[in-house]
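Fold this complex.
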Amino acid sequence: MPKKYQTPLLDELEKGPFPSFVTEIKKAAAKNDMAADELGLLEKSYKTKRGYWKHGGIVGVRGYGGGVIGRYSSLAEEFPNVANFHTVRINSTSAFFYTSKFLNEMCDIWDKYGSGLTNLHGSTGDLVLLGTNTENLEPIFAEFSSRGWDLGGSGSAMRTPSCCVGPARCEWSNIDTLEINYAVTQEFQDEMHRPAFPYKFKFKTAGCAVDCIASIARADCSIIGTWKGKISVDQKEVAAYAKNGMNITEEIVNMCPSQCMSYDGKELKIDDANCVRCMHCIAKMTKALKGTGEKGATILIGSKAPFVIGATLSHVIVPFMKMEAPYDELKDLVRKMWEWWDEHGKNRERIGELIIRRGMREFLEFIGIDPIPQHVKEPRRDPFYFWTEADLQKK
Amino acid sequence: MALPQRRTDIGPPHYKDFLPPVIQKNYGDWKYHEILNPGVMVHVSNKGEKIWTVRVASPRLLSTDTIREHAALAEKYCGGYIRYTTRHNVEFLVSDEKNIEPLLKDLKDKKYMVGGIGPRISNIVHTQGWVHCHSAACDASGLVKALMDEFADYFTTKSLPNKVRLAVACCTNMCGAVHCSDIALVGIHRKIPIVETDKIKNMCEVPSTIAACPTGAISPDPANKAVKIKEEKCMYCGNCFSVCPALPIADPVNDGVAIVVGGKVGSLRSDPKFSKLAIPYVPNNPPRWPEVTSAVKTILEAYIAGARKHERVGEWVERIGWESFFKATKLPFTFQHIDDFTIARETYRNSAAFKW
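Structure:
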């Protein structure tokens, strides 16, 4: 029988309508020693207002440099069953689709070798197995990999890529986000499992500019689906939206960021040349409007959280790339970017930070892309810029 | 018992093996979708085939018991097919319309919270907190639970001008999407790390510790093979602690929660935006953080009262101006609100046209 802890503070978080993580820990703690000590330790944190986890150590499975995050408690004597309590990252499926068969198998393995606690999913998109000790790592890996599942990324490596639901269940997707995600993951297995980069590298693929996977904010390489043709308009459906109470002038036309739409009460017109493909009108009138013509993706680079220079959003590098399997153009671009980052990146420097430090010119020249206005919001304001010998020779 | 033969570098299984038949048949051929109620939507293909999605809330931290329950429900009503969203919701994928009502009833009986679709508060993206992280300045799951209990109606029934994306990060490392969310919480420190001079030479690499500091506050202390921290330069970000465990910064008395607002990731109507500081510090008050939930409520209510239909929090604030935001919310404006970090001069007001 696992140890039973009194948890008056955490018990408060079992009240109320939202499902309780405390109830989850208690369910696991009823039959698992590790989960029981996790519960006791957490109650202590709630009492003292501080955490008791130490930094990760080097721990993992044979032949891999990542996929397991070492976690040790600083209160090993008081809570011996979480003295070491490592995270195992399992590479999730594209768009997080599962079957009951797999989920049950996963639970069987995890009940046998771990705490019985998980995150579905971690922030990056891994299927996170939360807490096991060092000797269980090889068995867990053998059980998962023999069933066709692999570990995700951690450390200075390619992290587990993730994507939106895309063409599987969304009418707005301009690209096959699931297949791109799968192809990138498979192509760069070595880069994922054996950390060799200056720091982490994340891919996120979104089917359109709604960006349900937050790629523009949370990926070193953001792949966002878009199109080059017109927005087709089904005027009958437009009339139906109006009839059902939508104020098309206020809600659609006036909210268009490029002011490229007009509506006279009968017909909705779009000046496609001035459309920036922001997705507002399409998202609000999905039955009436659709992007048509050539489909592809905008490739943006460099978003990350605040450390060290402040948070950044990804910025445009390739305005339009056709996205057709086997995605060689994307893979070649990625390899080129990594080569430059490997060469110049400092320890713990993300690629976006390196671009800011060394300048867009060097980056674009290295990957072989000419400057275009779409790369910037506005040109520079200062008169301080470089000229190369080659620039001076140009007539 | 012998272990099965391990395999390496195989990557994840192909997603097609996990898609319901109706999705496989209509992959990339969806025509439109309709939100039938806050917890149910239907996608209709060009062939006229349909898939219904029933969304329920999840605390993200799940026990195997609960996952088995998800699996059992998926087997009973969805042919065994289920997915999870980027915001940690659970989605039951129903191919047969007549299974929707029994599924909803079963979910209700089992006390699941159904909703989160459309212009509402969906699940909160968040981090590990005290549950499993070394650098947490506050818990994350507890804050999420307290907030979602408070705003449960905005998940299950009530609608908002547009969706409101909440996020919680337990330190400024921001593993959650705090920097681009409508309303977000981030755990912060307010005092400099303790320099455990004796431990540094055994635990830390001095150059990388110095390089980890965004403000250049750390310098070498060669006599002790350690580092020194200039108090007046330190902004308490804790990045040095991530590199060097001998610089602990957790402080139960002074740590707390900052609230940032107005971020978004989509390009709809306006470009993606960063979240900006609304409240520099709210005390860390577990288990239910009443000061935090009350502050978030103040901001949310001001947004509901002031925003036009389809405006996100950040779009509303930009239209009315930040001076009006502080007026509408009655939140105090302090020195902490004025940027003195890397983009300070971009944030000063270069115009005499503003509101009183």
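Residues 8-146 of chain A form a domain with the Alpha-Beta Plaits fold (CATH 3.30.70.2500).
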